[in-house]
Each structure stands twice: as C-alpha cells, then as structure tokens.
Amino acid sequence: MQIGGKAHNPRSGEWLGSLNPATEEVWAMIPRASVEDAEVAAAAAHEALRGAWAKLTPTQRGALMFRLADLLERDAELLAQLDARDNGKPISELRKQYAYLPQHWRYFGGLVDKLEAQVIPVDRNGVFNFTRHEPVGVVLAITPWNSPLVIASWKVAPALAAGCTTIVKPSEHASISTLHFAKLVAEAGFPAGVVNVVTGYGHEVGEALVAHAKVAKVTFTGGEAGGRAVSTLAAKHLKPTVMELGGKSPVIVFDDADLDRAVPTVAVGIFSSSGQSCVAGSRLLLQAGIYDEFLRRLIDRARAIVVGDPLSAETAMGPITTRAQFEMIQSHLFDAHEQGAICAFKGERSSNFPSGGLFLPPHIFTGVTPQMRVWREEVFGPVLAVMRFETEAEAVAIANDSPFGLAAGLWTRDLDRALRLHKELQAGTVWINSYRGVSSMTPLGGFKRSGFGRENGQEAVREFLQTKSVWMEYQ
Ligand code: TXE
Predict the structure, then answer these.
(1) Is residue 387 within 6 Å of ligand 1 at its C-beta?
(2) E strands along 382-450, which residues?
(3) Which residue's alpha carbon is nearest to atom 11 within ligand 1?
(4) Closest Cα partner for 325 from 15, 82, 85, 88?
(5) C-beta of 144 in contact with ligand 1 (< 6 A)
C-alpha cells in the first residue's frame, strides 16, 4: 500500500489473493489492511491536509496533477494490462479508458486555480462580506471492481482540485491498478499523505476508515448493500457522503428511430464490460412498429460478440469479475426462466473462449413483465430484458417505474418528442440518440435509489468544498 508517501505493508502481516477471473487463479497478492493501517492512513492524510498540501498554491497543486496525467499516459498500456488480468475487462475497452484518463486529470488539474468565490453586498452599511471555498478535509474514496482506476479518478481528482487529501480503498477484487497509481502519485512528486491507498475488505478496513474521526467525507461507488452500510455508518458519525449505486437504466426506441445507429449502440450499452457497468442499458423498450425488426437485428449483433480472453484485441466481452457476481447473474437467469420470460437469445462460446473462468455469454429476454426480477433488479451482467410499448406515455410510465434512476436512453428523430421526454425521464443522465457517453466535464450521478451527489464536471469539485462566509465591519 502507499501511506504517507511510503510503501506500507499491512500491520497484520496478512495478504489476500487477487483472482484472475478468466482463469480463477490467484495472480497477485494484496495487503489485507486492518484498523491499525486505517489509523496510519487517516493520520497521514490529515497531516498533509493542513501541512504540505495546503502550503502549495492552487497553480502548484494543478501542476502536480498535470504531471500525474503525463505518468498515467506513459503507463496507460501497463494499467490496461493489469486491469485485464485483475477484473477481466477486455483490453480493447481498457485501452480506450486509459487513453482518456490523463485528460480527466488535466481537466481537474485545470480547475484548481479557477475556484472563485463571491463578494456579497449584504443589506447592512459598513459591512464587507465575502465567501471562501475551503476543502472539506480528508476524503475517503471507496471504489468498486468494474472500472477501478477510472472510478477512483472520478473521486480523487476533484477532491484534490478542491484542496482535500484522500484515502482510496479499492475493491478487494481489483486493487492492482490503484496500487500502481499510488506509485505514480509518488513519482509525480505529490507531498506525502495527499493520496493514500489502503487495500482490504470493506467490512474491515473500509468501515474503520468510514468511522474514523479524521475522515471528513466519504465518496462511494458500489452496490446497494455496501452503499447502505457505508451511508448508515457515516450517518452515525454525522458524516456526509456521495453515493453512486448503479441502476436499471431504460432505453426507449421509438418507431421513427435511426435503427442503423440504435442497434449497435443498444448492444454496446448492455453488453460492454459484460454488463458490469453502472449505466448499463438493461431495460429495452421497443415501440410496436419496429419491435420485430429491431430484435432481429439486435440478436444478429449480439451473435457477433466475441466472448473470451480479455487480453485478446478481438474480445468484446470478458469474464464476470467475481464468483459471487457470476452466481448472482445465474440466479437472475434462473428466476427469469422460472417467472416465464422467454430467452430470445443466448450467446455461445467464441473460438477464443477459454475453458475455465467466469464466462457468461449475452442473454436477451422477451415476454418480460414489469413485476419480473429481471426487469426490476440490477443484474450487473450481460442480460437484457425487452418489453414492447405502443404510446409515448406508456413508455415513460414503464421507464420511470423503477426504484433506480441513474441513466436513460431515448431514440427518436422527432425533435419535439426528444425535448418533451428528456424532462419526463427520472434519471441523472439522459442520452438522446446515443448511449454511454461519459466525460470528465459533465456531471454523472443518480436520481432515486441510484444515489446522491455528483461525480465529474465542476459539480464534482463542489462536493468537496465547504463555503465559509466572512464578515468585516468598517466605519
Ligand atoms: O460491491 P460492494 P460488490 C453492484 C452490482 C453488484 C453489487 C455488489 O449490482 O452485484 O454491487 O458488488 C466496499 N464498509 N455494483 O459486492 O460490496 C468494498 O470493499 C466500507 C454496482 O463487489 O458494494 C468495495 O471497495 N466499504 C457498482 C466497494 O465497497 C465497504 C459497481 C464496493 O463493493 C463496505 C460494482 C462496508 N461495509 C458493483 N462494504 C456501480 N455502482 O457501478 C463494501 N465496501
């Protein structure tokens, strides 16, 4: 681990095996941090907050973030290779993610010295009032396994831009790229303690950090159960949180949609990362007029997906990252059949599909009703549920009938309809005639049970600032 600018072994002396999901073999060991390590990390982050990090000017802090961006660019291929082994995401997708990541750091590095405050003409004579934006303090970033370093960067870059110091607790299932990132932070020359990386279990070191008095705010991405545990514990300590908890995002395709664009985008929206994506478009609503043609073309598209070795450039879908997730998806498939859904398509092993590993091909279910589990719950796997609709009002009602609200997709050539409907859809992101676009520059986050707070964009920096109002009286 990296704590206080130094390599740090777990005080317990215990290590955990990290599995390569394509083989289910241990390919790396990660430290199993305990309460004692949490203590050291919190102290290091707290010391840097008022010390070395605060002494740098905003421009100097931004320059360090630019330097880190350069190092991420230099090591992009290595990071892609690490994640492909650690979480099984296809190398083609990882290369794109890591090609973009330096830009993310440059975006937030560029914001550091542009956080202007206000002078407020309060309604009193002889008063000069102004605001200051100050860092909230030490930020704990708890991250999942599906895009470990990208999601860590969504949290750490805006927190650093705000002047906070950070502790990252990556998923025990995919910590390796974040551990490499910690080395790059040191190489970039960040003062000790500004970014600390602590690995291990959520219920051990994770909870110790959430509860720690020196941690001021927690930003979490993960599942609902983990999110609930973290926000409950944080609430007990009156600590604010940002929560990104996944979704069950609807994609609505109207009869007038451009199917040449919609079909491949819908397929990517659900099947990339083997469906292990918070914004996966997992509920497809097709208008009656295009239902049959769309489904036929989508199945052709899904049939062409190469499921296999994540390190092969042709692979579009790698394995499921964890055995627990693999079994969870199997239980969804079982229930979908039990509850009467029709499996309209099930993919097959591709030629480079290895024999072992946690591989699951794409599935498309029709004959789905709104009560079915496959329609209501997040599967977090390559499973698409499809429903037919007739009218616009019906589509919106079905789309919004979900406890989640992370994202939604809308396919239509009717501009009036697009302008009408984007307001109706209860989701933090609405993609019109597109899907899955994410940028450092625009906010991402959930409505309803998909979470609260925002990542990315200038809003992400505001999550880590607190406003001070300063009054001066003069005569
Ligand atoms: O995530 P967890 P899991 C969903 C997906 C999946 C489910 C569970 O539906 O089936 O989550 O996946 C840390 N105190 N998503 O179990 O447990 C944990 O160590 C402190 C959606 O892998 O939520 C890890 O670092 N920390 C998602 C992080 O939380 C705790 C991405 C996430 O792990 C903790 C991944 C605790 N009590 C899965 N419990 C998305 N939103 O994109 C867990 N952690």
Answers:
(1) no
(2) 383-389, 404-405, 407-411, 429-432, 447-448
(3) 223
(4) 88
(5) yes
